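debug: dumping io for the single-chain case to check the tokenizer round-trip. Nothing else runs in this session.
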Amino acid sequence: MVKQSFWRYENGLLAMLSVGLGFTILDRVSLTLLSPFILTDLHLNNTDLGVMAAALSVTLAISGYAFGRASDHWGNRKLVLVIAVLFFSLFSSISGLAISLFTMVAARLVMGLTEGPILPLSYSIMAMESSSHRRSFNHGLLANLATCLIGGVLGPILLVHIAQAYSWRVAFFLVGVPGLITALLMLRFMREPKLALPAEIAAEDAHPTPAQLAGRRGNIALCLFLLCGLYTWLLVTLAFMPLYLVRVVGMKPTDMALLSAFFGLSGATCAIGVSWLADRIGRKPTAIIFSIVGLLVPLGALIFPKSIPVLALSLFIGWSYIGCSPLFAGTIPAESSDPAKVARTLALIIGVAEIVGGVLMPVLAGSAADRWGLAAPLWIVFAATALTAVGACFLKETAPGRIKHAIVAEPAVNLSELPL
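debug: decoded output
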């Protein structure tokens, strides 16, 4: 076996996409990180925060599927991705101009239109350019390393510091600049990915049986359900955990930002280990184990709110569940779908999860918080995560080398028969 150089295109592409996605996530979570300042300045309540968080997800879900389908049809995924990153970075700053709930929601709606294609296209391009034995690991690095370091560690500290030193508006104005630079780097160095079957499917399963096709269709539908639960866990936590720590636990905003950085540290370490593990023990057992681990996030905040060391440890360990996001949104559905329809398949899954986990659940959680207190959103997170752990038990394994192929004389069935 010839040893490949570290400085090959696969790793360079992974670095570019990771950094681009990292600054995209920072732009997105800036709303929740700055929410204590925004709600006070604009005289808004918890329900308003849920509406603002949900606004971006509405247009994101629509544009993600529309542009994902278009990129599959045109065969030009690179151009669509570069344009999306460029305009998202330009429009992210307009949130700093908001003077009311209406203008903030309008700003988030515009951001969602441009952000929609970024995640599904990043996953689909990475799936096509990845070595089969490290596809999950690449998706894990893409989803967690730069996103958590930039959006989870540096973001909370820098944005809160800027908001306190200047204003939350200045923080919004500055947050889009790095994305513009990343878009130019993608335009210069990224190549259009070649459309091809995943290596293990092309070699071992080019003519799947009806039973194998049914399993793949089931995986796609199940990943949609699992990602809805994970996005509820993720987006409701990001929206309301900062307020819970400040207003219920009694933390200072700077201390809250430092504790929130544990999310990013966990994502940049433990969550990447989740993707590495999925390449070795399989997608299904990894999903089950870490869906259960994710319960530590709401439970730690609800049971040990005054014990900062215990709370920090539970948040750090529990946040490793974020490592299942690339499994549900990228790796498993990419390995289960027609390669000519990968972008639209992933965009559909991510889009529906955005509507459920990013639109309906934050609004429901905000309303519950206004009625029963800020602990209510955390109980919603707990219930969604528990359902996800149960659903993961029904996945069909897709990891290369762990798929047991039955040798049955069946007529060839084309992957295009998948109902997408």
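debug: round-trip ok. The chain has a mean pLDDT of 78.
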